[in-house]
Design brief:
Order of helices and strands: HHHHHEEHEEHEHEHH
Radius of gyration: 21 Å
Strand order of the largest sheet: 1-5
Largest sheet: 2 strands, parallel
Number of helices: 10
Distance between the termini: 23 Å
Helix content: 25-40%
Number of strands: 6
Shape: globular
């Protein structure tokens, strides 16, 4: 936990702020428990530990997932195992929750942080980033799709803030709630924008190859219009209601921001996400 999570740049701001008190602060706030989410009782064999957890835990946040895109899910009508297992997980929770109130947060494509703990933090190559890396290294010649199509992206810290606010808002509720967390309705981003931002960023700040020479990227990526693509836009009215309720209850929205409308996409991708990809993902 300390090496792979706490020791990462993500916690550097807090570490600089607390100084020598950082380790004791983490020890007071966090307790690592070895287990297995796929096993009964989360794989925790210590009866006393299980009892203590049942007595002390108020909220369970489950975010474990498999991101292996296996083709076997297609025989069940799903595009890949990722979305298939997420759907099965939701069904299982609904079936076994008994009297527990459940909140489901469904973020779209999660990108690097927008503001906190600092802009541009990212870990692991996912979705958009694989294209950005390939483009920056001049290994991506084209991308099939409609350049006017909307790509639904949301920064990681906005997802975290949504989760925190959803916890608070639903703490005393006896019914379930689902939040779609994305940007396509409030502040749509299109593939043509991504193409332009990528070209602008890597032209001004090219990736250096193994010989120390700047890689000159191609112009706009060639897209092919595929009219047969069907695109569905998320209904985020529950999330909008959560934002309105938070404002009305006096929540510091500057601190727990999660409205995609505030994002200037060009500024975000050029100044935050692009540098984040180069710093944390390029190898």
């Amino acid at each position: 936990m300390h090496n792979e999570i706490i020791g990462k740049d993500l916690f550097k701001v807090l570490q600089d702020k607390l100084g020598d008190d950082f380790d004791s602060f983490i020890s007071e706030k966090v307790m690592a428990v070895a287990g297995d989410v796929s096993s009964e009782n989360l794989g925790i064999r210590d009866v006393n530990l299980r009892k203590a957890m049942l007595e002390e835990i108020d909220i369970v946040l489950h975010s474990a997932a498999s991101s292996k895109f296996d083709e076997r899910a297609k025989k069940h009508g799903w595009p890949n195992t990722y979305v298939f297992t997420k759907a099965m997980g939701e069904m299982l929770v609904e079936h076994t929750k008994e009297n527990l109130p459940i909140v489901i947060v469904r973020p779209t494509i999660i990108s690097s942080t927008y503001k906190e703990p600092f802009p541009g933090w990212i870990e692991g190559v996912r979705t958009l980033d694989s294209f950005a890396i390939a483009y920056g290294k001049r290994k991506l010649t084209c991308f099939p799709g409609d350049i006017e199509a909307i790509v639904d992206v949301i920064p990681a810290d906005m997802v975290v803030n949504t989760i925190i606010m959803a916890m608070v808002a639903n703490a005393n509720q006896c019914y379930d709630n689902i939040y779609h967390v994305g940007s396509s309705i409030r502040n749509p981003l299109r593939y043509i924008n991504l193409s332009d931002y990528a070209h602008k960023y890597f032209t001004e700040k090219p990736w250096m190859d193994k010989d120390g020479k700047p890689v000159k990227v191609n112009g706009r990526i060639t897209y092919v219009d595929m009219a047969s693509f069907q695109r569905y836009i998320f209904d985020d009215m529950n999330l909008e209601k959560l934002r309105m309720a938070a404002r009305q209850s006096g929540v510091e929205m500057d601190l727990f921001y999660f409205h995609p409308k505030m994002i200037d996409w060009e500024d975000y991708f050029i100044n935050f996400h692009g540098p984040g990809i180069v710093k944390y993902l390029f190898k």
